[in-house]
Amino acid sequence: MRGTVVEKILKAHLTNGQLSSGEIGIRIDQTLTQDATGTTSYLLFEAMDLARVRTEASVSYVDHNMAQNGPENHNDHLYLQSIAAKAGVYFSRPGNGICHQVHLERFALPGKTLLGSDSHTPTAGGIGSFAVGAGGLDVAVAMGGGSFYLPCPTVIGVELTGQLRPWVAPKDIILRLLSILTTRGNVGCVVEYFGEGVKSLSVPGRSTCTNMGAELGVTTSVFPADEVTHEFLKAQGRDKGFAPLLPEANAQYDKITKKLHAEKDAAAIANIRAYCADAEISAPDDKGMVQASFSRIVIDLSQLVPLTARPGSPEYIVPVAELADVAVDQVLIGSCTNSSFHDLMVVAAALKGRTVHPRVELGIAPGSRQVLAMIAENGALADLVAAGARILESACGPCIGQGFSPGNGRVSLRTCNRNFTGRSGTADDKVYLVSPETAVAAAITGKFTDPRSLGFAYPAIAEPKAFKLDDGMMIAPPSDGSHVEVAYSETIVKPPSGQVLPDPLQAVAAIKVGDKITTDHIMPAGTLLKFRSNVPEYAKYVFNPLNKPGEMTFAQRCQSAGKAGKSAVIVAGESYGQGSSREHAALCPMYLGVRAVIAKSIERIHQANLVNFAILPLIFENPADYDRIEAGDELAVTDVSKTVEASETIRVRNVTRGCDFACKIQLSPRQRKILASGGLLKYTRDGGK
Ligand code: MIC
Ligand code: SF4
């Protein structure tokens, strides 16, 4: 990483470890929380007995839980507003916009570190922040002035050359990158963009790329801070915070090695060959796996075409042209990925004087109040309304399954970042991820359309020289919050705290799941999101999409194991815990008695959340051992404490099948101590750093 932007920021913030390998600790300048993860985060902050935050700026946003069906959401908002005032946190009121868009507009700065209790916090990487998503407890610790710990990253260099052609958008850059790197096997990496092509991209355009870097599973993504960044900050009235941040001319990006399946990952392997000049691909081994190594990805922007991610995963990338004429039923333009002023202006200009196709329902959720106010003032909003768009609230809304769900099996084109099946609120949804340009083309024609074939000129929209500045919905905290009374309520329940691991561990495999299980599968959002502040209630729905009618739910199976004096264990395949930062995917299982997860691999944020809530993450040493456990099997592990303290492997006995196998313990020394304390809260309260 020598000479990279990543190295410069990390060097300036390093508190523990070395920038060569192992775990490092960094000082956090800014934090953000949103309401769905925020209540837990602040309740845990309170449990640490800290009066005020110790960061340069901490901001609490309300943008997720705004459906307000029942009292829960409003109760949360009032709690969040009061605790923000007490603890010294800015409060972004409901209606002010989506946390990542607003943070980019009003707070994010080049060279700063930002920790957010939301996986798309890396949006701020577009301005040159080192912005990382984490569980709410990690954010609570950072608010209290504690370091954030991460593995010293491998820096993947992505060189951008050329310039995007009309109707091709920044979304197509990140979709192309997803087709190369996939959503798997990038844990511990950071993407750094560089090259001539960077300067042709606006800050919000860059942020579309860093936002969806979350889907790669990397720790974060970063752009350099250049004149474009400076102009953006000036237009936001914040140029005082600007300092250029560029890589050295001889910056060194790291070599990465990925394991891929020769057949199943054929498309990714072909893309690695096409986009990585120094790619080396091994011959397949006896299981059909190849090793792909490369150190530099080059994307020529002028060669890019409009792309889409097919339903099911953000890595299923195909050119839009391949789907030409597939009928489209619904179009949604919104979410923290693509709802900036520029995005909405392009859509409004394309729709001006036209009407949305009769078979399509079009929803538009502006990313922030600033965006909404500006398109209202310049007339673009009137063009959208005249065209028949449904104007939705400036919030997460449909992105997290809160309204605007598509009909059964209906094709929905969305400018969002995730299309995990069912996330839209419809179990058999068909959500495709696209740019605003491709989205509006379908809204006009009623079918998948390469926007370059629309037959009219691309509306060239310049970035504003001055954005509309009105922070009336951003409440600054009083200098002394001691007099503030915190608004608790009956729907806000204190989160349970972790327990030291039982030794020996006697458990039941309460569920066995396959590959790529997301946190949306573990702890679904949508209409259940309102239970975020009530773990006992929310825990009833753990693995809800996988529960079968007429059978015991996951929660009931855990409870019955508990009655028999046993803990519960989750068995999983590759990339367990992909997706969001929601620590409820660890907290609720912990509440139900889950004490270990045994998987082929576990994603970064989720693994950290498991440790924070004293659940032991174990990785099959031999992935084939996955086949030696079935749901309902009894498992036993002896010498748990001693082994977790010092050893790299642990043996798990399958009592039911009379066999045993080894699992890896891939934890830093600090994480081992956290587990020994019974979780991060206890560790921090006992003075652990
Ligand atoms: C998401 O996009 O899945 C969310 C909802 O924003 C989550 C956070 C949460 O579950 O509250 C995320 O991305 O971290
Ligand atoms: Fe909100 Fe969707 Fe962005 Fe998550 S991905 S923060 S739900 S807009």
Question: Could you characterize what this model shows?
Answer:
This protein is of the alpha/beta class. The chain folds into three domains: 5-254 and 295-301, 2-Layer Sandwich (Aconitase, domain 3), CATH 3.30.499; 308-453, Aconitase, domain 3; 505-685, Aconitase, domain 4, CATH 3.20.19.10. Helix content is 28%, strand content 20%. The chain contains 21 helices and 30 strands. The strands form seven sheets. A seven-stranded mixed beta barrel has the order 24-25-26-27-30-29-28, surrounded by four helices. It has a six-stranded mixed sheet with strand order 7-6-3-4-5-23, with helices on one face. A hairpin with a 4-residue loop joins strand 29 and strand 30 (659-664). The longest helix is centred in the N-terminal third of the chain and has 16 residues, at 72-87. The radius of gyration is 24 Å and the shape is globular. The structure holds alpha-methylisocitric acid (MIC) and iron/sulfur cluster.
